[in-house]
Structures
1.
Amino acid sequence: MQMTDAEKNNMGRLTRRSVVGGLAALGIVGAHAGSSSPSRAASRLTPYGVAVGLEPFRHDPLYRQALIEHADIIVPMNMLKWASLRYDKGKIDFERADEIVSFARAHGKSVRGHTLLWSDYNPKWVDELSSAREAERVLVNHIEQVVDHYRGIIPSWDVVNEVVAHDPLEDGDWRKGIWQDLLGARHVEIAFRAAARTDPTAKLVINEYDLENTGLRYDARRNAILNIVRNLQDQNIPVHGVGLQAHLYAERAIDQKGLGSFIQTLEQMGVKILITELDVIDWRLSRNPVKRDIGVANVVAEFLEAVYAAGRPESIVTWGITDRYSWIKDVFKRKDGAPNRPLPMDRNYRPKPFMDVLQKYRIL
Ligand code: G3I
């Protein structure tokens, strides 16, 4: 991963405005972003995105300011999920998702859609579906309506989320859940077909967790993803990307080799990598905040080094931007009671070493 002298020079000269202008000209960020032509360095920049929670978005002006300042891409964290859009059967409510999408567009940001199918966070009536016929009808109808609503606005979708079993060695490739239970492996094909049919220009992504580390379970999970991609391609169903969620456990080793060959195999199949939910699970790191922030940044650097050694990701999205708001505290609370520090900015919106690592890799 060598930088030319010209690129090193450009690093110093890049301003956010020139970068965003370049991305806009390339169609990577929204048309409002700027009009300057892309410099060579800007054309090599990996766009950075943030998943946005509705509550802080509505109530914390500093949160919105951080998004305006730092994000090229906005991902509604929960508002495009079934339980948000379709709480009541027979109704679809885009209002809250549109609130975030409109903000993104008004500020020249691109948007990623998360997610058209997941076995979690579905409304009760979906979990109660009981026939394959009804499940397919409901699933196709949902994807058509949602993708159509955002046609020309959301260019990239997590079509399916977390469809691989937590441990494929124990349970086989597929994760159990309403769609798998009623439709079997076909649920992924149905979802991708419906999305492709509705917006043939959209980039369609399989989004998955636990693909980065060393161990047989991780090998099996990477293999399961490759099987799914192969199966879709064998049937001429378009699949453009694999999303590495990258909720990184600080105490687990990144599998440089395994992750690298996974990315290269996908590349040979014409499938890109995206980093879709990056953050660091810091529950086992030092209590000392300075040491912890360095530990967190090191994990991110180790991960990005492995990814960039194998190929450039299409985008890097973090799951939130400030330690003030993150799901990590709900699931990976520290035993010593110290607040988690999983994201690029601290609770007071000061950039942490994590942010410096992002800046470095985005430009490589
Ligand atoms: O909005 C309500 C709020 O009004 C209410 O007061 C509060 C009380 O619990 O709940 C709020 O809703 C919560 C919502 O997050 C917003 O904070 C839901 O209960 C909670 O279930 C929901 O959790 C989200 C979870 O997905 C389930 O959808 C997390 O924020 C979100 O970070 C998490 O994201 C997932 C990705 O989609 C897939 N990959 C893993 C990732 C982390 O679990």
Note: The beta strands are 48-52, 73-76, 110-114, 156-161, 203-208, 241-244, 247-249, 272-281, 316-318.
2.
Amino acid sequence: MNLEKNIIEKFKDFQQFPDRRLLKSIGDDAAVLKISEKKALVISADSLIENTHFLRDQITPEMLAKKALQVNLSDMAAMSAAPKYLILNLALTKDLIGNWLNKFTKSLKQVLKIYQINLIGGDTNCSEKQLLIDMTIIGEADISQIKYRNQAKRGDLICVSGHLGDANAGFYCLQKNIKNLNLIRAHLKPHAQVELGLKLGKLKAVHAMLDVSDGLLQDLENLSQASNCGYEIHLEKLPISNALKNFCKKEGLSPIDFALAGGEDYQLLFTVDAKVVSRLPANVSVIGTIQSAAEKKILLHQKPYHLHLPVFQHFNPV
Ligand code: ADP
Ligand code: MG
């Protein structure tokens, strides 16, 4: 278990009062509060911290505003919820108040309009050294369509949307001063799978879902622990972009390692009844199957795969 999970564990039993509205608290991509017979609010928070998640001179205020929102939208997508409201907490250093902040706010306003999200509150503070953008997002969902990460069933197919590893490789390029714009864009300008999340919510055969924010290996482990199941993954089936393949070929690196470790893909990882495989949306890859709890296999052409270190992560992970 990593340090972050150890810390979160301390808060797991903080629901000290019975509350029939609370359908889900800590442990999934978002909390779920029942508001009527059929509807629920879905609530989650995520922060971007300077020097942990980004370097100030490598990302524009416009990109940062959009990225902070996308990171939060991804958790809504993972629950099959439609985002509706935002609460914004800022800790700003003095030099940012002015031009930088104007660009940030203008960009955030634009993107919130596109997604039809209203900003309803927040908090603003001065910070001595580092910039912090912290968002709480509130969405709405049909209770019957919400997908949780603890519902995977033995025999389910394991699926993932889009491509994996691009953002992680983009982060690597920034660190090493390699100009690969496609990969760097994936890191700086992520795109949450909100539409796909809503679509998958309507499919009863989709059993469990979460977003890939910590890297496939970690999020697969999150899925497996929550659902008390194992998995068999076939790495030759991982969706790897041409951009990542070409980059890795040139640099003598493994695209699989970028796809497995690290993170910030903001794709959806979900399990589905094998019978409906033909009805899955395009842009979805089947990468394995759910097994019984004791069985965890990561195979490349049927042989066990060992990650090549280093595993790329944020600057300063908890
Ligand atoms: P995700 O798996 O979506 O990346 P996290 O790993 O950030 O989510 O968090 C896992 C769960 O722990 C979530 O339900 C989140 O709300 C909860 N959580 C994280 N940090 C805290 C905290 N400091 N206090 C209470 N709950 C927390
Ligand atoms: Mg998540």
Note: The mean pLDDT is 95.
